[in-house]
Amino acid sequence: MTAVYAIPVSAVNPDDSASRARLSRGRLEQLDRRHGAARAQGFAASLLLEYAVSQQYSWVVHPLAISIAEGGKPYLVSEPGIHFSLSHSGDWAVCAVSDHPVGVDIERCEPGRRDVASRFFHREEVRYLNTVLPSARDETFYKLWTLKESFVKSTGRGLDLPLRSFWVDIHRMPPRLDCDEVTGSYSLFLPAFADRDYCLAVCVEQANAEQPVLHIMN
Question: Residue 63 and residue 50: Cα distance in Å, rounded?
Fold first, then answer.
């Protein structure tokens, strides 16, 4: 099962002593090297991970010890069978936890970013974007972008898997993936998000996975 948690970044204070006590010393040191919005976003995502794991896997010891696998994908040292992914953008931080490899991505939908598609997307995705009504192209672009980012995160390949090396078909739902460079079966989702200025996508390395449950925290 896959669950997704989201929290407004403003709901968390990175200098609150009670909140800081919930994170490991190593994680705090990493976060405190950041500044401004990046620090606040990272802190919110890290606290959200602690909460999400406690809700879904009550036996896990906290604070969580996190390490980085080859390729850059983070994992829980004590529970490598519990998979997670973090993302943040603007006012929101999100966390996905699952018993299968998972990736999550959230993006604030700002107009005028479609030039990214021509530079980094697969030619089939660029072709599809050009067929969409102009009024819907920004929304379509962000759906594709978040889906692609969530897939890359779920594979653990990072920058080793270029965005133009695979394509996501969203002409019909659910989204379908075409990628010759990665083996395995993946399920892609676009959960309806409460804030319409943002787009959220989830990818699970599992054929016909169930729709992730989305929890919005205050």
Answer: 7
Strands annotated E in the chain:
2-8, 66-68, 74-76, 83-89, 92-98, 102-108, 167-169, 176-178, 187-189, 198-204, 213-216
Question: Cα separation of 218 and 154, whole Å?
Answer: 27
Q: Regarding beta strands 74-76 and 66-68, do their DSSP bridges make them parallel or antiparallel, or are they unpaired?
A: antiparallel
CB 83 within 8 A of CB 102: yes
How wide is the angle at C-alpha 189 spanned by C-alphas 176 and 138, nearest 5°? 85
With contact defined as beta carbons under 8 Å apart, do 163 and 148 qualify?
Answer: yes
Q: What is the pLDDT of residues 84-137, one digit of tens each?
A: 999 999 999 999 999 999 999 999 999 877 778 888 999 999 999 999 998 999
- Please say whether the beta carbons of 209 and 154 come within 8 A: no
DSSP state at residue 13: -
Q: How far does Cα 199 stand from its chain's mean position?
A: 11
Which residues have CB under 8 Å from 93's CB, separation 6+?
A: 6, 7, 9, 12, 41, 44, 45, 48, 86, 87
Contacts 24+ apart (CB under 8 A), 11-20: 11/44, 11/217, 11/218, 12/40, 12/43, 12/44, 12/47, 12/93, 14/39, 14/40, 14/43, 14/44, 19/43, 19/47
Residue-wise pLDDT for 25-70, tens only, equals: 999 999 999 999 999 999 999 999 999 999 999 999 999 999 998 8
